[in-house]
Amino acid sequence: MRTDTPQTIYRKDYTAPSYLVDAVELGFDLDPARTVVANRLTLRRNDAAGTGGARREIELYGEELQLVAIRLNGKALGARDYAIDGALLRIPCDAQDVVLEIETICVPETNTTLSGLYVSNGNFYTQCEAEGFRRITYFPDRPDVMATYTVMLRADKRQFPVLLSNGNLIEEGDLPDGRHYALWEDPFKKPSYLFALVAASLVCQEETFPLQDGRRALLQVWVEEGNLDKTDYAMQSLKRSIRWDEERWNLELDLDRFMIVAVGDFNMGAMENKGLNIFNTKYVLANPRVATDVDFQGIEAVVGHEYFHNWTGNRVTCRDWFQLSLKEGLTVFRDQEFSADMIGTASGRAVTRIDQVRTLRQAQFPEDAGPMAHPVRPDSFVEINNFYTVTVYEKGAEVVRMYQTLLGRDGFRKGMDLYFARHDEQAVTCDDFRAAMADAGGRDLSQFERWYSQAGTPVVQAETHYDAERQTYTLRLVQSCPATPGQAGKLPFHIPVAVGLLGADGRDLPLTLDGVDLGTTAVLELVEADQSFVFGGVREQPTPSILRDFSAPVILKYGYSDAELVLLFSHDSDPVNRWEAGQRLAMGRLLKLAEDAAAGRSLDLDDVFVDAMRKMLVDASLDPAFREQALLLPSETMIADQMDVVDPMAIHMARQFVRADIGARLRSELRAQYDASQTPGEYSPDAESIGRRALKNLCLAYLCAAPDEAAIALARRQFDEAGNMTDRVAALGALVHARASSAVADAAAHADDALRRFYDEFQGEALVVDKWFAMQASAPTTDVAAVRALMTHPAFTLRNPNRARSLVSTFCGANPVGFHAPDGSGYAFWAESVIALDALNPQVASRLARAMDRWRRYAPALQKHMKKALQQVAGRATLSNDVREVVGKALA
After folding, report:
1. Which of 27, 82, 122, 820 is the least crowded, having the fewest Cβ atoms under 10 Å away?
2. Cα–Cα nearest to 370, from 457, 492, 459
3. CATH of domain 1-201
4. Which residues, in sequence order, are bridge partners of residue 536?
5. Which of 193, 588, 586 is nearest to 388 (CA)?
6. 704 with 712: CB under 8 angstroms?
7. Annotated Gene Ontology MF terms (predicted)?
């Protein structure tokens, strides 16, 4: 626990390390209570460090370590030969070449931070990104120090029969006293954050897999005993990822083996350690009995993401942590493209794109408008763990996608090829990636740099004018970007704006700009603050379809009429903008209804919107997956983001009213589509089946939003007869969210009975129990008292990140009614939970702390309670840097 005044680290202060490490030799004598680490580093002076004639020092970092011995070129050093200042160890040294030997002791069994070397369920695991390696041994723990690693692991053979590390297994054997050893060698240079070891009692599914160059690689998925029946989908996803990277990018697996290890205690989703990926069990374990469609999709995406890091992150890594999006934004883009390609259909690609846009709107845009707003490439941080954000990941992926939009698919591929050719086994910057794209495409992308350096979501205001006599259509685009912390004035961005025009019959009109025929979709490049584009040969008044495929992460403002939105919602050939038109129709009504609810006026929903939803619901020419997305209302978070003063209860009342009204007025159509969307036979997580289940279960949710006896009976029957977890969870959710209904006798009893039976059946499946907690935490009938009661359940613990997130974080982040209780009890609970978690695991605590980012947007009565809770946390004397930075920025 760090209690000193946090130090702000600035990108502008970057200096190269005074010494580089060529080779690392590590020896581990593994014991939960006393692990001894022997570390031999081969270093050389870095002449590029620019220290001139000044005396040089070797700088190493270490935390929570007992230093036993240091030897420099064979000479033992005493306490006067080095200096320790907090986490920094300095050794004066003028030698050109150095062999440094360090022996340390750590205590993995007490490491509840899950950073560094720790014990989970009696097994050893590591997590070294971003700065966990310094909890294992003293080291220049920074990403621009890359070296080869040789690792010797020694442990009790009975207790820890499996010994794994990065790279290739060189040798293994038995030792005296029931111990054994394994020697691993990673032939590729890597930074210390990619180091990993596992010493555990595990079993594995393994296969040999043919690679493009004729080699066969050993693939292994390691899990705890009893979970081997849940590994096949992860293995198949890994094989698909390897093949896709070969075929799409000509990037091959460079090791003899590739391993995935699943652990139940893990702060993140997964970690791309070279050749030894360590995963949260959530993204490995799956079969139809315990995993939903969303789980299967998540596993494929995350397995792909971590494997793709082998090149975009491992072979080419970050110079410093400010460049985090260099690897994460790029790799998110790659996993998005992989997931879309695995579906293989245009409609399937559209649905994945809509999911991405929804994530941006629900999570990233609010972050851009809050106290933690930061550029894709931050300028400063106190705690780097706080910058594993939707801005760095998802907005970073949008920045990469814009390169492809501007350069075309072939031009983007040339840029990727040049990037790898220039920078393989190097630690580089976002500017290096941009330079490769510019040089390969022959484009000046200097203005595009602003996407990396400027925070906030740009706003594009569109205006149009049709000249019937000249048959021209003028589109004027004006861009701006609101001020963010530390950044007031913003310069114009380079924004690709994809545009189409629809005729009165809903068909695309041909586009001609400056005498050039552009087909039916034109990518306009908005580079000025105010820019106009004049299309010629437009023979009728069109309806504009602006920002097709969400071609840039911006907020588009345009005064669409209801008639225009209905036309787009019914006919736009661009599925993302077709979905967007429905979202705009819904949002306008939700905002008005929230205003009415706050004022105590009666609520009413017009026929225009309901008829548009009905038409979408019954349109059998559209894929069920797209219809499900189009029929989903904007979330309460997205509605709140559109309001100057947020009233959570009014928002909830408005959205629940719309859901109930749709459920009541479209009851027969919803039931008909429910019946038509069944997926008989054996469960399959293919895209078509997932889409049909999604539409069916949305229909059930709408029916139970305005429940009658038939709707509740339908949900109960689906719960009882479900042959897969997707349908069972959907039915349980419908019952739980209908429990407050007064229209159905014993609605609460039905929900309580289903919850009890669900837990009884799945209490041995940790990930399913997480769903059980989350289901109750998000229910609008759940208040603070109910959450506190659930925290006393024998299955609950704050020490496991998944379990803490399933209940505490879900309540604070996904239950606006309970969390924003008028008496402030939700905020008091948040403060108590952040403080408790911070003592155990600062990373999990800081993510929970983000729930209060935008407290100043709420009504004054709520603000008062929220500020008090924030001050309570900020006033703690023993607070981690992780949490201190978040609450400090919220209060600033």
Report:
1. 122
2. 457
3. 2.60.40.1730
4. 472
5. 193
6. yes
7. alanyl aminopeptidase activity; metallopeptidase activity; zinc ion binding
b/e for 184-221, b at 16 or more Cβ within 10 A? bbbebbbbbbbbbbbbbebebbeeebeeeeeeebebbb
Which ranges constitute the DSSP H helices of 183-250? 232-249
Cα–Cα distance measured from residue 668 to residue 415, given in angstroms and rounded to the nearest whole number: 53
Adjacency order of strands within the sheet including 459-467: 516-517, 512-513, 530-536, 472-480, 459-467, 555-557
For every residue of 351-376, which 3-state class applies, written as one string? HHHHHHHHHHHHHHHHHHCCCCCCCC
Q: Domain 763-892, what architecture?
A: Alpha Horseshoe (1.25)
Q: Pull the structure tokens for residue 690.
A: 């997932």
What is the per-residue DSSP string for 74-104?
TEEP-GGG-EEETTEEEEE---SEEEEEEEE
CA 224 to chain centre: 26
Using the predicted structure, report yes or no on whether residue 173 has a pLDDT greater than 70: yes
Which residue, among 337, 340, 342, 335, has the nearest Cα to 350 in the 3D structure?
Answer: 340
Annotated catalytic residue within 25, 131, 224, 306: 306
pLDDT at position 578 over 60: yes
Q: Under a CB-based contact definition with an 8 Å cutoff, are residues 731 and 716 in contact?
A: yes
Phi, psi for residue 373 in degrees, rounded to 5: -55, 135
| Cβ proximity of 308 and 336 under 8 Å | no
**677 three-state secondary structure:** coil
Instruction: Reply yes or no on whether the pLDDT at 55 is more than 80.
Output: no
As given in the structure block, the two tokens for residue 667 are 């009851």
Looking at the DSSP bridge assignments, the partners of residue 92 are 57
Fold type of domain 459-552:
Immunoglobulin-like (2.60.40)
∠ CA(747), CA(748), CA(754), 5° rounding?
95
pLDDT, tens digit, for every residue of 755-789?
Answer: 999 999 999 999 999 999 999 999 999 999 999 99
Cβ(278)–Cβ(125) under 8 Å?
Answer: yes
Amino acid at position 17, single letter: P
Concerning whether 306 is annotated as a catalytic residue, the answer is yes
Fold agreement (1-201, 459-552): yes
Angle at 370 between CA 581 and CA 376, to 5 degrees: 80
DSSP secondary structure of 778-838? HSTT--HHHHHHHHTSTT--SSSHHHHIIIIIHHHHH-HHHHT-TTSHHHHHHHHHHHHHH
Give the pair of three-digit tokens for residue 164. 């794994």
Q: Which CATH architecture has domain 316-453?
A: Orthogonal Bundle (1.10)
- Is there a contact between 208 and 217 (Cβ–Cβ < 8 Å)? yes
* pLDDT confidence tier of residue 1, bands split at 50, 70 and 90: very low
- In the DSSP assignment, the letter for residue 646 is B
Q: Which amino acid is at 157?
A: K
- DSSP per-residue codes, 152-195: EEEEETTT--EEEESSEEEEEEE-STTEEEEEEEEEEEEEGGG-
| Residue among 58, 67, 48, 47 nearest 92 (CA) | 58
Structure-token pair, residue 485: 């912390």
Q: Are strands 83-85 and 88-92 parallel, antiparallel or unpaired?
A: antiparallel
| Residue 374 identity | H
Going from N- to C-terminal start, the domains of the chain cover 1-201, 205-292, 316-453, 459-552, 763-892
What's the CATH architecture for 205-292?
2-Layer Sandwich (3.30)
Taken in order 751, 754, 755, 756, is the CA torsion positive or negative? Answer: positive
Over residues 346-397, the pLDDT tens digits come to: 888 999 999 999 999 999 999 999 999 999 999 999 999 999 999 999 999 9
Which structure tokens are listed for 84?
Answer: 């320790």
DSSP string of 421-456?
Answer: HHHTTEEE-HHHHHHHHHHHHT---TGGGHHHH--S
* N-term to C-term CA, the chain: 23
Largest CA distance in the chain: 95
